[in-house]
Amino acid sequence: MIGDLKAKLGGKGGWMDWVWIGGASIAVLAVMFGSFTSIEPGQVAVRVNNVTGGQLTVTQPGLITRLPFGIHTVFVLDASPQTFSMHGQKQTDDLNVGELTVRASDGSNFHFQDTTIIFQMIGDEAAKVIRDGGVERGYLRWMRPYARAILRDEFGKESTISVSNPAKFGEATERAKTRLNELIGAHGLQVTQIVTPRPQFTEDYEKLIEERNGAGNQLEVIKSNLAAAQTTRDRKLAEVNRDQNRLIQEKRTELESGLASALAEQANNTREADTYKISAIGQGQAMRSAATQQAQELRGQLDAEYRSRKAEIDAFKTQPVERVMERLGERLKGVTIAIEPWASDASPSRVEIEQVAAGGGN
User: Fold this and answer.
1) CB 130 within 8 A of CB 78
2) 82-201: which CATH topology?
3) Is residue 362's pLDDT more than 50?
């Protein structure tokens, strides 16, 4: 470029040509370097087009172009986390103010020796920060009234007893964080963390808190002992139940074995009884059949004998007296008979026999 300028000037003019060339070079370099703005890590930039009014927010580190002659204006802001502290007795700057004092719901007062709020700019909303707080660090001045008012309000809803409870204390902190983000979020800021120490009370109340904490620790020890005793009790009950169940199972096994033996013996006895019954019935039926047959045979014999005797009797009835006497004599052979007639009847029709002595005959 310098060579071209020198050629156009035709090599005339001497040192003035070099002055013009140097000035032009410096102007070009100044315009070129002035057209870029560097963004460091933890910074955001807002480029404003002064002609159209458009805005561009850049959150990535690097270089951003800027047209000269007032066409573009670039604002670089610190987007790194900021720490707002409330400690001590007075304010030293926008990020360090006096300690936080709170009036509880029951009328008592307590304070926090050191309260820390960590906040930062929302990179994508840096234009809001410039719009509401200006191009400088004016947005830092919002933290003092917002943080103090909201923390006092949220912790003031608790009593001195509840605020000394870590669970309630954490709930109040989360409520304050939510409300702060609702307020300052509209201006492009965000609270990431609120760190508060244990609230401080009067000396007498601090003693009462220590005593209550001691009682609470004793209560926890008692609860732990009760839990251990309950565990021991459950273990012993489990052991007793296990032993009793084992005894029950053994006794049940023994009884079931005895029942099985008894049932087997009963089945065997039933089988033997059925066998004996069948055998006895068969034998009885056989004996009955034999006795029936014998009775029938005996009945036949008796009938035959009866008929024979009847025939003899019938035949005897027709015999003469002499024949009767002959037969009677045959029967009474060897027997001495004393006959005493009842009447002088030549033809007696009845004879009576009387036994006089056991050793002799009549």
Assistant:
1) no
2) Tetrahydropterin Synthase; Chain A (3.30.479)
3) no
